[in-house]
Amino acid sequence: MLFVGCLISISPPKTVSSRLYMVCRTGGTHGDRMTTYYDVPADLLIAGLAEKMQGESKISPPEWADQVKTGTHRERPPVQVDWWHTRAAAVLRKVAVKGPIGANRISQEYGGVKDRGVKKNKAVAGSRNISRKILQQLSESGLVVESMNTAGTVNHGKIVSPKGQSLLDEVAHSVRSAAEKKYPGLKGY
């Protein structure tokens, strides 16, 4: 098939958009492949995002953050000093992957098994207050926005804004080399 100066390659991989594999007349590909948050492991992406969010003025832990448990299934508060920024980075990634999503569903994602003594263990949700406050801070900083229906009457939840998408992609691109060193099999993707 002949297009304006470019040909499409025979068989692009199923996981990548076909526009990335357009072969130009010079024989090279049509630009470098962009790294997204799907291309890097979550642990490296969340650590990189947490570092970026340390500098964000609107994302800061409240006064009670060093004394609160993250759910009824926990016995003690978190021991990490920057756990709020790490949780905010993880919530931003969850909103990007699973959005539109609300505070209740986010709290369920961070829930766990509650030890009830002699009785059977039971699944419980995490703290809705922490989830709600982090989503509010991410909204104030412009990283997530509300997803409404076409009439504007029903709120479906939060989705990533273009600013949040660019932050995720920027951090994913910056941690790509570290990810390839840590996980050698990523070079093929």
Summary tags:
two-stranded antiparallel ribbon, disordered N terminus, Arc Repressor Mutant, subunit A, 5 helices, globular, alpha+beta, two-stranded antiparallel sheet
Compact description:
This protein has 189 residues and is α+β, with helices and mostly antiparallel strands. 37% of the residues lie in helices and 12% in strands.
Describe the structure.
This protein is of the alpha+beta class and 189 residues long. The protein folds into two domains: 1-33, no CATH class; 36-188, Arc Repressor Mutant, subunit A (Orthogonal Bundle). Helix content is 37%, strand content 12%. The protein contains five helices and six strands, in the order ββαααββαββα. The protein has helices spanning 42-54, 83-98, 103-109, 128-140, 162-182, and strands spanning 6-8, 22-24, 112-114, 122-124, 144-148, 155-160. Strands 1-2 form a two-stranded antiparallel sheet. A hairpin with a 7-residue loop joins strand 3 and strand 4 (122-124). The protein is globular and about 55 Å long. Mean pLDDT is 84; it is low at 1-28.
| Gyration radius, rounded | 21 Å
Instruction: Identify the CATH architecture of the largest domain.
Output: Orthogonal Bundle
- Work out the helicity level: 25-40%
Tally of strands: 6
How is the quaternary structure best described?
A: single chain
Average pLDDT score:
84
Number of helices: 5
How many domains would you count in the coordinates?
2
CATH topology call of the largest domain:
Arc Repressor Mutant, subunit A
Distance between the termini: 26 Å
The main β sheet shows up as: 2 strands, antiparallel
Structural class based on helices, strands and sheet pairing: alpha+beta
Strand content: 5-15%
Shape: globular
Overall CATH class of the largest domain: Mainly Alpha
The largest sheet has its strands arranged as: 1-2
**Low-pLDDT regions:** 1-28
Helix/strand order, N-terminal first? EEHHHEEHEEH
CATH H-tier superfamily of the largest domain:
Winged helix-like DNA-binding domain superfamily/Winged helix DNA-binding domain
